[in-house]
Each structure stands twice: as structure tokens, then as C-alpha cells.
Amino acid sequence: MRDAFSRRHAQHRAAVPSDKLKEPAAKAGRRTLIPIIAGTSLLLTTAGIGVAALNSDSIPAPVSLTATADAYVQTTSATQRHGWSSRLVAKMNESTSFIRYSVPAVADGYDRKATLVLTRLTTSNPAKIAVSKAPGSWTEAVTYSTAPKPGTPFVTVADDGKSAQLRIDVSEGITEAGELNLAVTQPVGAGGTIFGSREAGTMQTKLEISYVPEGTTGPVPSTPTSAPTSAPTTVQPTQSPTATPTTTKPTTTPTTASPTPTATASPTTTSPTSTPPTTGLAPSWNPANSSRLTFQDEFNASAVDTTKWERGWFKEGISDGVNSDNLQCYDTRQVSEAGGFLNLSLAQQQATCRGGTKQYVSGLVNTRKTFNQRYGSFEARVCLPDGNGDGRVDGFPAWWTNGPSSVPWPDHGEIDVLEGIGGGTKASLHYVDPVYHGGTYSSTPLAGCHNFGSQWTSSGVTFYYDGKPMWSHAFAGSLPQFLIFNYAVRQHSGEAITPGTAVRVDWVRVWA
């Protein structure tokens, strides 16, 4: 699966010499794209894409291309900076995604038929999707202020909000030079669908190229296909409860004993059932680091690995929210793994937990039974929800580590690598002796996909956002901690409650 150092700028270009195009064929009435040597057709491959050669009795085989570059720009908010650019090519919510392809050359006598295939990751309301030609000058660094404006659509299709794929005929957009620059826009409505990425395996957005004799119609309908089998649960949002609950910090399994920790200088770990590699990837803030990789999940499977993760707060099924002000229960059914991501989805559905009825259910995973570590580097790539497209984080999502339940909170210590609070993103620490509860917000909200990490040593914790140091502080916690990802909601200023959204984790890695 993809990681922070993967194929960001891969180019997929046809290796066809320009002087061979439109060359007269050896046989009457035929044109060839690739010369025939010793009676054998040549096969061209470039960046993993095979382009079958023409011979005197056939036309080229279809070609599937991935995007050479893409960028997401929220056109309704100047604060959003292409938050999904490295993963998603389309998050349709009155917004525009730019996609660029280099299309293989075509022999004289044939037409190229190009079909943009968007694979759905989440369901949504029905909406209209428009495709127009985009200027060729944009880059992946486009922002709200520098993004080109979409032109007049040359094709508009209806998205039903639930079909597994949306297939759009974009042949009209191919230039004579073989470049396809597209602006994909939802001009009206609030579909909110997230389509697949260029780095997500079978879920990636792709371009299908077929060749047909000039003047004929290719099989590239602009229609949805069958419904997805593993999309997060989606329901329509309703008005949030108005009563403000009492807020307290998390409680874990009740206990009366508080054991005295024994400090050591070296990391203490309990290994997961599936042992990860011990060499290779390093923290983004220290790529030359040779530390031992002690835990890893790239979320490439079709189901969550329950030898690593418990899907709930101290139990599976329906479990309590971590805090008393949570408006949701955790439900194992809201936890899924698909498209190269762990998905913790929020749905508006009644459930009973903490002695009362909650109006929402969402997902949480933890490693309390399988993996705990004291000291080391902890990093995950997390995609935070922004359901209304305002550039701020929805709800109260978190990526954090916590001490053993046999010790009461906050005696065991808590490291909040990431919390979405009030629409922003914050790193926090909680411990005693001396008592400390504090943290620091990032300079701007980090909605979308970002790397969030921490370096924990005997002298304290340093937090890194997208590989850069964000905040450091002393930390008195001395017990091994387990990993937690969760998506909570509460009645809190700036925290939008948007059913149908999800916290998505690309990967998580821990080093000793």
C-alpha cells in the first residue's frame, strides 16, 4: 500500500516515437502505430502500463492509466489547502478536483475513447458531477487562491450517491498532444462523496483508454455501476441534541489497586501476534533512523486484523464512549477495513451505553490486549473528516496512547498525538506527579490526510505533524501504553456532527 514516501509524482507516458505516428502502413488501407520487426509485434511498457502494439490485423488493446498528478481544492473555503491531494482525487461537496493524464498516442485511422472511472469510498446524497477542461499550468501545490477556475463542462452526469463506480466519457478533453487535464466538480447540491485515490490499489481512480476505428462509437457509457459492498454506513444528519452534558475525563475499567511502576532506560513492549518487519520504514521526521519497527499495520486487507485490534472500548459489540459527554456509543459494525484504509464511520443510530440512550454510533480500535510500549516513536497517517467542506475537522476524533487499566487515570499517563477539538487539531498530555493537563493546537486545522507522530523518551514527548516538530513537553508517565484510534462526537463549539463521515487511517507504525 501507499506511504508518505510513495509514488507522488509518477509519470505514465507513452513511449511512442513521434516520428512513427501517422506513418503509412505496409499493407493497403492499414495504419500501424508500432513497426513490425521479424514478423513480431512489439510490446511497449511504461511505468507499469502495457500498451499493446498494432499489427496489420488488429487494433490496440485497451490501456488503464493512473493519474500523473492530482489535487483537491475546496472552492468554497479559502482556508482549505488541497487537503486530499496525495490520496483522493475527488471529494464532491461543491468543490473541484484536478486530475492530469498523459494519454498514449493513437494510430491514424483510429479514435481514442477515454473513460474516467471513479470508485466510491463513501455513500452520499445524489448529486450532479460536471467535468470540464482545466488549464495545463496547475500543480499539486495549488491552493484556493491559485487554483484555476473550472470552465464550461463538456459532460455532466448524475451521481446516485451509492453506486460502486461512476464511469464518465471524457474523450472530448484529450488534446492533440495527448494530454488530458480535467476539472471534476460538483456544482450544485451536497453529495459529499469521497472517490478513490491514485494510490489505493483496486480502489484507485483510473482512466480507461480504448481504440475504435474512426467514426464509430466506443463502449464508454457515463453511467453508475452496481452498489458498493463495503462503504461506510451513511444516514442523513439531523439537528444535534441541545442539552449540554457534564464533561469528565475518560474512565477505564474500575480498579482499587495502583501499582508502583518500575522505571527502566529501555523501551518495554508486548509484541502483536503478527510480527512486523524489523527494518525498513522510519519516522517521517527522521528518515535515516535505524530504530526497530515494533508494530505496523498498513490496512491493506479486506477486514480488520483482530489479532492486533479490539474494535470497541474494552469490549466488542456496543461499548461505552470514553468520555461522559460523548453523544455516541462505539459499535464494532462501524469499524471496517477497505480500500487501503481503516475506517471508523459515524452513523445516526440509537444505541444504549453508559446507562443511557445515545443518538449516534461510531468506531474505535485499540491494542490494549496485544501491544503496549514504553518510549519510542509513534506515527500514523490519519484522514480527518470535513463533511461540510469548511476546512475544519468534524467531531472529536483522536489518535492517542493510554496506560494500563489497572492504574486509574491520569496516574498511568495519556499521550494525545492528535485530537480534533473545536474544529482544530491539537496535541495534548495528561499525567500526575506533578499534575499536568495541557497541549498545543497546530497553526491551522489539519482536515484531510496528514502524518501525526510523537517521540517519547525519558525526558518527555515531542509531537510531529507532517514530519515537522509541533510541540515538546516533559512527561511523567512511566508505564507502557497501548494504541487507540476513535471517532467521538459531543455538543461542543466548532465540532460539527456529520453522520456519514469517517476517520480513516492509512497506516500506523511504532519504533523502539
From TrEMBL:
Classification via Gene3D superfamilies: 2.60.120.200
Taxonomic source organism: Kribbella qitaiheensis
One protein family per Pfam: CBM96
Source organism, top-level taxon: Bacteria
Biological-process GO terms, alphabetical: carbohydrate metabolic process
Biased composition (Low complexity): 216-284
Keyword Heme: no
Keyword hit for Signal: yes
Protein name: Glycoside hydrolase family 16 protein
Region annotated Disordered, chain positions: 1-23, 212-291
Upper lineage: Bacteria, Bacillati, Actinomycetota, Actinomycetes, Propionibacteriales
Signal peptide region: none
Domain GH16: 269-512
Keyword set, alphabetical order: Hydrolase, Membrane, Secreted, Signal, Transmembrane, Transmembrane helix
GO cellular component, one term: extracellular region
Subcellular location(s) per record: Secreted
An annotated Gene Ontology molecular function: hydrolase activity, hydrolyzing O-glycosyl compounds
Family designation: Belongs to the glycosyl hydrolase 16 family.
CDD domains assigned to the protein according to its UniProt record, in alphabetical order: GH16_laminarinase_like
Main location: secreted
Spans traversing the lipid bilayer: 32-54
